[in-house]
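TICKET #2291
ISSUE: user wants both folds in one file
ATTACHMENT 1:
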Amino acid sequence: MGTEEKGLYDVVIIGGGPAGLTAGLYTSRARLKTLLIESGIFGGQMMTTEQIENYPGFPQGVSGEALSRLMEEQAKRFGMETINDEVLEVSIENERKKVKTYGGDYFCRALIICTGTEYRKLGVPGEEEFKGKGISYCATCDGAFFKDSRIVVVGGGDSALTEALFLTKFVKELTIIHRRDALRATKIYQERAMSHPKIKFLWNSVVEEIKGDDVVRSVVVKNVKTGEMTEMEVEGAFLFIGLMPRTQFLKDLVQMDREGYILTNENCETSLKGIFAAGDCRKKLLRQISTSVGDGATAAVAAEKYLEEEK
C-alpha cells in the first residue's frame, strides 16, 4: 500500500454538525470506512445554542450541548473515525477526492460536505479591532462576561432574538438595533422579546462604527430614514445579522450560488459525481437541525448507492 493509500476512506465527511454526525452514523452503520473532519467543536452552532425547542422527541426542549453530545456518541458507536483539523482545499486526483488539511492529505471515494454556516460580519470600523474585547457573535459563549452591563444586539431574525433573550440573564439593559421597522423573527420570539423589561428596540438603524479603548465603549448608529447619527455608550455588542456558508475552501470545484451555497439535487448530489452536500451549507428553503439531520441521512444513503455502482 502506497503513502496515499494509507489515507484512503470510503467516505470522508467535512463538518461535525448535525448533518455531518447523521451522515457519519449512516455510513459507518453501512460498514463504510468513514472519517469525519471537524475544525472546531462537534455539534457546530447547535453546540452553542442554550435551548432547542423545535427538535422532535424533546417536549421540554433540550440544550444544544446535550443534543450535540448524544449525536456525537451515537455516530462514533459504529466505528466512525474523527479528527480535529481544518480543510484547506478539495481536489480530484486519480479519480479520488483529495482533502487537504493542515495535518495532511486524506483520500476518499465519496465526499460529503457538511460545513454549515458562519456569522456574517458587519464590516464596520472597529469590528475586527474589538472582536473578543466587547464584540461577540455567540451569547452562550460570552454572555456571562457581561454581567450588569449595558449592551446592544444587532439584528432582527431568530438568532438575534433568541440570543438577546438569553443575554437578559446577565445584562442590566439591552437594545436591539434593527435596520427595519419590523422584525423577521418567529412570532413567539418576537412576543417574548417585546414583553421583556430589559429589552429595548432601536428601529430603522444601522451600526456605522464601534469605538473604544482596550474594550468597546460605544457604537455609532445611523437612522436609515433621516440620516441622523447618534453615539450610544455601551459595554458590549453582539452581532447577529445573518449567516454565510463555509464553502470558501471549495473554490470552483462544485456549482454554488452567488452567496456560496452549494447547489444540489433532492438526493444531496452536487454537480460533481461522488461529492455530496448536506445541511446549512447547501442551498435550500429551511436551515434547521431537523432539516440538517434529514440531509445527512439522504447524503449518506446517496453516497452508499454511488459507491455500490462504482464497484
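ATTACHMENT 2:
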Amino acid sequence: MTNLLSQNKMFGGVQATYEHPSEVCKCDMKVATFKPEGAENAPVLIWLSGLTCDTTNFQYKAGAQRIAAELGIVLVMPDTSPRGDHVPDTEDQYDFGKGAGFYLDATEEPWAKNYNMETYIRDELTAWIGEHLPVDMDRMGIFGHSMGGHGALTLHLKNPKLFKSCSAFSPIVAPSQVSWGRKAFEGYLGRNADTWRPYDATDLVIQAQTPAKILIDQGTDDQFLKEHLRTDIFATACEKTGQPANIRMQDGYDHSYFFIASFIEDHLRHHAAAL
C-alpha cells in the first residue's frame, strides 16, 4: 500500500512524498515525485542522491522543478538506503550504512537482508512509477550526484534499454580504485574484488558501451575530486572505448548543491532531447 505523506503545488504541478513497502529492502521506502501540470505519458527521470542524503535534498535544493514543469518531465527522487530501526547501521560513519546504500545489492551480513538498492531502483521503484505516475516507461532516464552519480552510471550501463539517458554531477566513477568505494564494496560485497566489478562504472564502460551520450559535470574545486571521484579515470575509459560522453570540468565549482543548481537546467534539457 502506498501512503501519501505530503503534497504541495509547485510551478503549476505537484511536489509530493510517498511511502511504500519494499520487498527487497524489507522496509518501507520513501520516494518524492514532481508531476508537471497536465502530465500524461510523460518522460520520467529518476534522481539518485549522494552520501548522507534522503528524499529531501534534491527536491529542496536543486531547483529542478521549474524546468521540469516547462519540459513536461516527471521527476522521481527515491531514498539513498533502506530505513527503519530494524535496518543495520554504522551510526558513527557517514559513508557506510543508512544514507549510504551505494545502489548495490549487498551479499555480506548483516547488510544482505536490507541493502538491496540496485534491485529496488531497477525493479521495484520502476514498477511503482509505472503504476502510480502518468509516465511513458519507454522514455525513462536516470541521473544523480556523487554516490548517486555512481548509481546512475552503473544502472544505465547495465540497463540501457530501461534507463535510456544518463547524466551525473560529481560521480564516483571508479569506486574500486578509491577509498569511498573500496570501503563500501568490502563491507557490502566482501573482499573479493571480482564481485565489485558489476558496480564500477569504469569497468562497465570498458566491457560494453551504450548509444546514449552521457553528460557529466564535475567542479574543479570539489574537495573530493582527487581522492574519491577521479573523473579522469572514466574520461580515459570513454575515450579508449568510444563511449559517447560529454565530460565537463566546471571551473571553480565545488561538491555542493549550489553546483548542482547552477547546471541542473543543462541536465534536464540533455535528458529531454534524448528521450
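RESOLUTION: both attachments delivered.
EXTRA DETAIL ON ATTACHMENT 2: The chain has one domain: 3-274.
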